[in-house]
Amino acid sequence: MSLQSIKYTTGKLEILDQLLLPVQSKYLAVKGVEDGWKVINKMQVRGAPAIAIVGCLSLAVEIFPEAYESKKTLRQEIEGKLNYLVSARPTAVNMKIAADELISLANELTKDEAVTVDDMKQKFLDVTEAMLQKDISDNKAIGANGAKAVLESSGKDGPVRVLTHCNTGSLATAGYGTALGVVRKLHELKKLEHVYCTETRPYNQGARLTAYELVHDKLPATLVLDSMVAALLRAKNVAAVVVGADR
């Protein structure tokens, strides 16, 4: 089972504090938007997909126990809090995209006279909570398609060696990972001979986070210096380099 960096049930959210990794594995309770803003801003949660999910779920946690007098009041709450969450890490584009989509949904529900304020609140919670499972499903599809592409391009029947950079796994997403999801799928198919991960200076996401995930999942892996990559590619017959790409 891959690492779980986000734990959520309706009304309760916890995140794995990434600033403490790999020395300590500690989950933090996120009790509302203010907590969500802080963990995003301090990089206790990182990775564009994970930031968007934690930000939106922090609002869901805050809204869940509340009663609202009108749809207008709820809409204002949603819009104001989401825009505030975007300010925690303005470069994390997934958070901005998710905020815009949820604000648009809130506006539509406010205008629909057939929708009550309780209906509107529940719809918002349902859509927000669905983001978690959709991200995992998307990541597994990326993993399957990526693994297929790597194997086809390698021209090998047996297991392959791959290199990855930075962190694109469960710690950067809702689970499984994007580029690291490709590595996980190769391992599931018994087609992964070895994966090499770089330090990723200056923040060392590879050394602190990706290496932590690979050890957790018991994948055959080696951490290498960033400056070793050219020699590694030449000496170890690496079939593919899999990395994340911000949109």
UniProtKB/TrEMBL annotation:
GO biological process, one term: L-methionine salvage from methylthioadenosine
Annotated family: Belongs to the eIF-2B alpha/beta/delta subunits family.
The entry's keywords: Amino-acid biosynthesis, Cytoplasm, Isomerase, Methionine biosynthesis, Nucleus
Record flagged with keyword Electron transport: no
GO molecular function: S-methyl-5-thioribose-1-phosphate isomerase activity
InterPro entries: IF-2B-related, IF-M1Pi, IF_2B-like_C, Initiation_fac_2B_a/b/d, M1Pi_N, NagB/RpiA_transferase-like
Highest taxon of source: Eukaryota
This protein's name: S-methyl-5-thioribose-1-phosphate isomerase
